[in-house]
Amino acid sequence: MHRLVCLGLSHRTAPVELRERIGALGLGAERCPAVVEHATLQTCYRVELYARLANGVEDARDELIDALSHAHGVERELLIDHLYVHSGDDVAHHLGRVAAGLDSLVLGETEILGQVGGAFEAGRAGGSVGPGLSLLFRTAITAGRRARTETAIGANPATASSMALALAEGVLGDLREKRVLVVGAGRIGLQSLKALAGRGIAQTAMANRTRERAREVAERFGATAHGLDELENVLSWADVVVTATSSETPLVGAELVQSAVSLRSERPLVLVDLAVPADVERDAGAVAGVRLFDVDDLRAGLDDAMASRLREVPGVEAIVEEEVESFRRRYHELEVEPLVSALRRQAEEIREQELERALRDLGEVDAATAQRIEHLSRSLVKKLLHEPTVRLRERAGTGDVDEVADAIRDLFGLAAPRDT
């Protein structure tokens, strides 16, 4: 367990600029000799590297941070200031909570479970995920699925985008006959268009810095596509605007909003800014007829909307703990598998050598007799190894294996197992 580590940046610990600079946190991990397995989980609000190391975390942590710092051109001190680190079974506990939606901006969101599964599949397809991380991710996915089937943590599914629309509904009422503009064709923009389609809102538009990307996304949802140079006109058209770009400076200024409002027929305009840093200037909310919500408002709204989900948290935490406890046992068993394999391999080599010698000494032996002798040799080896391997796995499951493993290596003359 001491070889597992998670390094991450999230909306709670790092500004979006740093998260964007890092991008895929796993880049560079493959160049780090300390890393045996690795997988990257990247979402709108987090980027995390999960790794199984050749040695303990304390020995490899600095080496891994140096590799990531160099690969991404980020100052080591800046990375350390915003980086959180989990090690040992805390890694399983953290990923289990993530998959269950307990660590999301929107409590109990369902999308994160698919993203955890996607990270797992991407790691397996790329050959960077082996038995250790496979067990880790399968455990987390199981915890996430159980949380949503055994509790009401996922009742009335809500993402940041759907909650943004709920805020707009609180001002405008039913949105089905309203016009909604989404600014930004990233993950949240796609999520927003999907939420709009799910609510039966037909009058939708997409605006993006790159018009081609806007057109590509808009076509999937039956929306119209626009460039950012058309913002004034499309703002005057919309009743609700959801912004979610990665711009470092506001795209929607107060003057632009004032100008757009002047072209409207006294219709109210709701702006919901999901971007960090903000896409909309705060002063835009002071324009007559405009209601501006930002991420802080979203969190405040979630406090009320998620009250029922909060009551489910203890039950979900209990599920995560159950799965982590199972993970501990299975992971420790996994750690001794190389030793079990080495023991069996040595026994099989000896069996084959002695069988060959016995058959040679016996001379002409009919096939049936030779087969019975071979069966006898296999049976003897299996029975002799049964108790040692059972005891080894049992001790591994309790986390008390080092002394037994050392004794078996010493008694049977086995070298220390190679890291896998």
What can you see in these coordinates?
By secondary structure, the chain is α/β, with parallel strands linked by helices. It folds into 3 domains: 153 residues, Beta Polymerase, domain 2, CATH 3.30.460; 145 residues, 3-Layer(aba) Sandwich (Rossmann fold), CATH 3.40.50; 83 residues, no CATH class. The chain is 56% helix and 13% strand. The chain has 16 helices and 10 strands. The strands form 2 sheets. The chain has a 6-stranded parallel sheet, sandwiched between helices. The protein has a 4-stranded antiparallel sheet with strand order 2-3-1-4. It is elongated.
Q: Outline of this structure?
A:
With 420 residues, this protein is an alpha/beta fold. It is built from 16 helices and ten strands.
Task: Give the topology, please.
Elements: E1 4-10, H1 16-22, E2 35-42, E3 46-53, H2 57-72, H3 76-82, E4 84-87, H4 89-99, H5 111-125, H6 131-150, H7 160-172, E5 179-183, H8 187-198, E6 203-208, H9 211-221, E7 224-227, H10 231-237, E8 240-243, H11 254-262, E9 269-273, E10 290-293, H12 295-305, H13 307-310, H14 313-362, H15 367-397, H16 402-412
Parallel strand pairs: 5-6, 5-8, 6-7, 8-9, 9-10
Antiparallel strand pairs: 1-3, 1-4, 2-3
Helix pairs in contact: 4-6, 4-14, 5-6, 6-14, 7-8, 7-12, 10-11, 14-15, 15-16
